Inverse folding.
C-alpha cells in the first residue's frame, strides 16, 4: 500500500489562500446571487445561438446581438403578458364586491363561533393599512436603497449574461484545466450537468408553456373571462411536477358543471385529461432527448428546497444541485471501489 506524499508548507499555504479568496468571492456574489443564477441559466440556454452568430460576426458582436435578441424576443413579451395578467387579476378582485366579502366573512366567523362583526374586522385592517402606509413613507430611504440595489443587480446580470455568451466555452475549458479529477471523470461530470440543466430548465419550461397555451386556448374557446391570467397561473403551476395544469382545469370544469354548462364542463374535462395534461407524455420525450432520469422524489425535494433557498430560480437550480450530489456520490463510490480492488 503506497502512502500519499505529505503536503509541503507551500502547498498548504496555497490551499489556504485558495480557501480564503474562494470564500470572499462567494461572499461578494451573495447579494446578487439571484441575478448571477439568472444570467447563468439564460446563458446556458442561449449559448448555442450566440455561438452560431459568433461564427459570422465574431465573439463580441455575436454575444451582444444575442443579448439584444433575448431582450426583444423574451423579456418584452413576458412583461407584456404579465401586465395583461395583472390587469385581469385586478378585474377579478374588483368583481368581488364589498357585500360579498362581508357576507362571506360573517358566515365564516359564525361557523368558527367568533362573536365579532366583519365590519369591525375590516375597519381594523384598514387602520393597520393606514399605519403601514405611514411607516412606508417614513422608510422612503429603504425603498430608494432597494431600487438602487435592483439597478446594480440588473447591471451585474447584463454583464454576466454577455460574458457567459461570449466566453462560455473558455470557462468550460478553464474548469477542465484546474479540475483535479481525471479527464474521463470531468467529462462525465460536465455531461451530467448538461443533462440535468437541459431536463430541469428547457424541458420543464417548454412543457409548462405548451400546457399553459393549451389551457388558455380552451378557456378562450369556452368564453372564460380573464383567460390570459389563468394561462399564466397554469404556466407557473405546470413547473411543479406533482401539481401541474390539472389544478386549474379541474376546478374550472367543476365550475362549469355547477353553473349548468354541462357540455362545456365535459369538453373541458376531456380536453384537460387527454390534451392539456396528456401533452406532457407526448412532448417531454422529444424536448428532453437526453434526460437526467432523476427519481421523482429527488426532483420534488430539489424543487421545493431550491424554491426555499434560491427563490423562483430554485425551481430549476434545486434539481440540478440534488442530481449533481447524487452523481458525485456515485463517482466517489466507483473510485473507492477501484482503490479497494487495487489493494
Amino acid at each position: 500500500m503506497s502512502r500519499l506524499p505529505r503536503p509541503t508548507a507551500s502547498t498548504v499555504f496555497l490551499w489556504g489562500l485558495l480557501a480564503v479568496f474562494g470564500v470572499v468571492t462567494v461572499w461578494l456574489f451573495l447579494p446578487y446571487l439571484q441575478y448571477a443564477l439568472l444570467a447563468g441559466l439564460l446563458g446556458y440556454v442561449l449559448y448555442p445561438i450566440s455561438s452560431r452568430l459568433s461564427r459570422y460576426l465574431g465573439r463580441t458582436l455575436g454575444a451582444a446581438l444575442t443579448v439584444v435578441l433575448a431582450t426583444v424576443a423574451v423579456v418584452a413579451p413576458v412583461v407584456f403578458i404579465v401586465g395583461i395578467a395583472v390587469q385581469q387579476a385586478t378585474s377579478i378582485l374588483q368583481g368581488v364586491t364589498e357585500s360579498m366579502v362581508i357576507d362571506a366573512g360573517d358566515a365564516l366567523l359564525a361557523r368558527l363561533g367568533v362573536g365579532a362583526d366583519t365590519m369591525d374586522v375590516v375597519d381594523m385592517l384598514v387602520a393597520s393599512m393606514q399605519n403601514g402606509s405611514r411607516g412606508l413613507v417614513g422608510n422612503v430611504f429603504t425603498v430608494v436603497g432597494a431600487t438602487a440595489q435592483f439597478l446594480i443587480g440588473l447591471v451585474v446580470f447584463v454583464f454576466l449574461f454577455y460574458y457567459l455568451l461570449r466566453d462560455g466555452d473558455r470557462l468550460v475549458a478553464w474548469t477542465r484545466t484546474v479540475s483535479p479529477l481525471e479527464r474521463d471523470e470531468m467529462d462525465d461530470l460536465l455531461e451530467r450537468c448538461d443533462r440535468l440543466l437541459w431536463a430541469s430548465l428547457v424541458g420543464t419550461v417548454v412543457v409548462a408553456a405548451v400546457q399553459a397555451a393549451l389551457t388558455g386556448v380552451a378557456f378562450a374557446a369556452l368564453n372564460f373571462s380573464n383567460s390570459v391570467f389563468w394561462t399564466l397561473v397554469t404556466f407557473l403551476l405546470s413547473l411543479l411536477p406533482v401539481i401541474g395544469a390539472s389544478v386549474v382545469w379541474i376546478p374550472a370544469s367543476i365550475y362549469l358543471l355547477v353553473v349548468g354548462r354541462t357540455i362545456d364542463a365535459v369538453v373541458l374535462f376531456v380536453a384537460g385529461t387527454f390534451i392539456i395534461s396528456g401533452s406532457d407524455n407526448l412532448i417531454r420525450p422529444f424536448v428532453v432527448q437526453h434526460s437526467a432520469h432523476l427519481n421523482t422524489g429527488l426532483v420534488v425535494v430539489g424543487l421545493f428546497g431550491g424554491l426555499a433557498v434560491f427563490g423562483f430560480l430554485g425551481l430549476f437550480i434545486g434539481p440540478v444541485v440534488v442530481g449533481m450530489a447524487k452523481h458525485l456520490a456515485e463517482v466517489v463510490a466507483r473510485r473507492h471501489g477501484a482503490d479497494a480492488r487495487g489493494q
